[in-house]
Amino acid sequence: MLANIKGLVDRLELSQAKAMMPLYEAISNSLDAIEEHQDGFINHSISIRLVAANDLAHQAGDGTLVVDGFDVIDDGVGFNHKNLASFKEAHTLSKVKVGGRGVGRFTFLKVFSSVRIRSVFKSDGKNLLREFDFSIEDELKGADVTSEVHEACGTQTSLRGMDDKYRAGWPTHPETIAERIIAHFLIRFAARSCPPMTLESPGHAPIDLHALFQSTVLAHIEEQFFEVSGHTFALQAYRHRDGRSRHELNLCANGREVTTTKLRDLLPELPEKFLDEEQAPYTLIVLVTGEYLDDHANQERTRIAFQSDEEPELEQTLVSRRALNQGIAGALRPLLTGDLQSTNDEKRAQIEKFVEQAPEYRALTHPRYKEVIEQMIQPGLSQDKLDEALLRVKRTVEDEVRKEARHVAALFETETFEQYQEKFKDIAEKANEIGKAQLAAYIAHRRTILDLVNNSLRKKRTDDKYPLERVLHKMIFPMGVTSKDIFFEQQNLWVIDERLCYHTLLTSDKKLKSVAGLDETSGREPDIFAFFYDTPIGVAEADNLPGGGVVIIEFKRPGRDNYDKDPADQVIQRFREIAEGGVTDVDGRQINPANLRYTGYLIADLTPSLHRQVFGRYHRTADNEGYFSPLATGNGYIEILSYDKLIKDAERRNRILFDKLGLHKN
């Protein structure tokens, strides 16, 4: 051998659960030897004989099968000179063409102490016998010695002396061992690329593995035919009862698997494992066959030629792998309706519960989206992963609606009004659902913002003080930016007044003189400054105030109680600076300050010192949680709002929306 056998065996990792790998390897070698005859598997056979351990229990008459070894006997081409040369090579490449890694035979020595090979092969018209032991100490001593015999070609591989640590990995019932063999070679059995095979064991009747396959596995197979690009393919779906496996998709050519991929990559809706009526796990093994696959597999059977996505026009005779996958999914899904029933029920229940907290996805619970939800959402997702998955579905649905809308619009020129109206009605209904979902998301956002503001007011810091006013300021509008710098969804001016959302320009913690048109004012920085060019707000007609409106908002720290003057004075000072600052409009035209309407909001807790400063100068609001006062100039007013009033008023204005979505909190 070209490598140290002991080192290879020592480095070989083989768990107790894989103790039957030497048997699988011996059977696989026999299958390959028979295939070399190239005259059909049906004309050959494999016999497996289990050898029981002659331990004290067996000597005392215990009928329990304790496997000590086995023989695998075939009528393949035998260990001819070419096959022996491959066997001698430590990491042989001869099995690469059938997916092997060239190290399987070393599992013989990992599990068993004795390996004996007796093989008859044909050379130069003679049948020659080759017998040798395969061992760590002597490697393949005597393998080069041959003698002429009058026997048919074939090989017997005999393994004895199982290591005690691997005994637990072997079942004690021959039927279970037979089922394990079928499970391991399932694709070969299904593809009819397996010769007749029997399993014999002491004290038990022989087991015909093909008959066992027919009775235990074939009953759980469904077959479907489908076409892709003019080529017919056959799909077979097996319910694999060996719960240790995963869902697999196998493309097969000439009776052998060529490529194996994860079926869940094609069908994300599959659970990791299915459960049958008795709660036993099973997975799906899918085989796809067809003349196209037979004709386009490479010689090594490791790859199938498909049309490339980059230059499809150069390979028009080839099938697209994407198109084949779509055909497989379309043929397979109807077969899995029953299997997926409970999974889809659980998935829908999870989504419906999740939608209670994320109403923006509520439209996706409509029956028309049932199929896309079932196909695009994996079962058992975490809350975060489910949110991401639903967002992808929502975007997919929105894209489809937009495409349909463009298509329907194009039909206006070619179809009757009645046909156009019917199609428009359908697309309008879908678009309306999407609009509702977007509105629901925005309303849910409002609910969240109010909760955050409310919680911030309730939470004191370790120094027993409330959070700084800038914490609340940021929730209403980001600091240090203008309304041109952020998206509409990033500002929450509606908490104070819905009309503030429709400003022409708004700045937050910016110097007043940095605002276009207010160059002559001071460098003071109002918390929030809003300009409504030619759009006055408040109780006045637009014709009476052609100059527009100015709004200034100031936040005071919650809980503050050290006011020594009217805190609204700083708002009034900003109004005065604007009135004296030569205000211009968006076109650079001078605005008469007398035509501006001024509105000021002071957001603060109504503490005793604040009450003293405004006593006799302001009117109390009807709910006793704020103050208001007109400006002496008669063109505006100041309103002092408590944080409690701010939240309560916003809750009242939005209550009908929250009620409709089930978001109202008593």
From TrEMBL:
SUPFAM superfamilies cross-referenced by the UniProt entry: ATPase domain of HSP90 chaperone/DNA topoisomerase II/histidine kinase
Highest taxon of the lineage: Bacteria
Gene3D superfamilies given in the database record: Histidine kinase-like ATPase, C-terminal domain (3.30.565.10)
Protein's recorded name: ATP-binding protein
Source species of the chain: Pseudorhodoferax aquiterrae
Lineage: Bacteria, Pseudomonadati, Pseudomonadota, Betaproteobacteria, Burkholderiales
